[in-house]
Amino acid sequence: MGQRLFFTLLEDRTHQDLIQTVSESYQIAHGPPTTRRGRYFDSFDWLLYKESLVLLKQEDTFYLEDQKSFEVATECPWRRKEEARFWWDFPDCELKTKLNECLDVRALLPFLTFVQRHEKLHILNNDEKTVLLVYLDEINLNGDVASTEPIRTVTLDPVRGYKNEFRDFHQFLERLKVAEPSETLFDLMLKQTRRKPGDYSSKVKIALTGDMGGSAATRQILIYLLNVMKQNEDGVIRDIDTEFLHDFRVSGRRTRSALSQIKDVFPDAELDRFKQDFRVLGQYSNKLRDLDVYLHNKEQYLAMLPENLRPGLDPFFMDLRKERENELIRFVEVLRSDFYRLLVSDWDAFLVSDAAHEAARTPVNAEEPVITLARAFIWRRYKKIMKVGAKIDNDSLDERLHSLRIQCKKLRYLLEFFASLFPSDEITLLTKQLKQFQDNLGEFNDLSVQQNTLKEYLDTIVPESDRAILVAAAIGGLITNLNMRQQHVRAEFSDQFRLFGQKKNTKLVKQLFKDEEVLITKEE
């Protein structure tokens, strides 16, 4: 069977005009039109769209559709008054499983709301058999859209065994000159919305050219990071999902890393205030992010304990949720404060104004080609990591691993900032190897922080009842399991470092980044 064909009615035409014209040349049958309301959903960072999926809610049912064919992959009834926000809100079904695989902790957000008037025509032959289906749709979009004019479409849906009839009607429609070929109805609706698929991603996407000066390139990096922060502000304030805070914080951290690593491209006097303010901003949200991680790991923590101890963690998580509510209120106050608003406006002005960069002495790397700076800074950071890592053994203090983790994070940021300057395959390979090594160091650090938090909570428990004893036993058991896991991760460090520093990786790093000299005036 052939594929459907899509057309858009010309502005001065209506579906009723078309029906009248078709009925003069064809025998048709059709029932009364139906009106349906619908909403399309995806995460803020378009995770479903990236998997070629579309989530549609019409009336009291959710449909997960293939983005290209729009065939329903699975569906799930929804009769609750409140809207579904996360995959775990759905009853157990295939749709819930697929959303879990795609979304993780991200919330579902409506990006298209519409009212659809739908009519189906049956084109009949002399035997009154249906030889072609014609769908007539009129869509009125609601919300943040570019136009409030209705979208009127015609869809030709072939019937198996009637290929010639499909072709003939297609030619007939073209002769009428009442419609023009178009995209799918969904694509037409997308074009009218303010938000576009892929307009936000947590991944760094900065396009630089090698001959850009250091100052211009760094400004482009920092403007990109500032925009990411701005994009996530509302999601943090409204507490849509925890990834808004995560992406907000990472963008701030990347900003601080760029300011500390990409040296001598701006006058130092201009940067001291911003470095300090971004550091303070990050500190304001540290506790809130830690609480998000603990609450997200609840099921993982419960799985570490025997069933008879699991109820002992209930008070712990209740206290975490209350504490998170208070921390969120505090951080929202920060985002609405003069401190934050002035930081964002002043930083924005600094980055876009040439006058802000006038100084008695031009920084030595301001006009240096960014490709030269990128190679020098990345090579220097890589050498430092290899030097520090080589000195760590089984007897080294945990602080040594923590310091190495910070160095690896700085290298990861540099690779992200300057990725567009180097062959994508090589950068992807290096980033993948670095991430694997970072995962080992990151998990070791997380386990250490989690144990300290649990120990602090354990100290607050007064064993005056059987319930308090159960809570203490559960917390103690969890600390023990986390410590065992930490020792296992610690034992894997040597193998992970050896894998990261293997000869082929070192050779690739040298090929890409070595042999560039640049004046680096300061150490961290």
Overview in brief:
By secondary structure, this protein is of the alpha+beta class.
Could you explain how this protein is built, in words?
It is a single chain. This protein has 524 residues and is of the alpha+beta class. Helix content is 54%, strand content 15%. The protein has 18 helices and ten strands. The chain is globular and about 90 Å long. It starts with a strand and ends in an 11-residue tail after the last helix.
Output the keywords.
alpha+beta, ten-stranded antiparallel β-sheet, 18 helices, 54% helix, 15% strand
Note the beta-strand portion: 5-15%
Order of helices and strands: EHEEHEEEHEEEHEHHHHHHHHHHHHHH
Fraction of helical residues = 40-55%
Strand segment tally? 10
Rounded Rg: 29 Å
The shape, in one word, is: globular
In round numbers, the mean pLDDT is 91
Instruction: Describe the largest sheet.
Output: 10 strands, antiparallel
* Uncertain spans: none
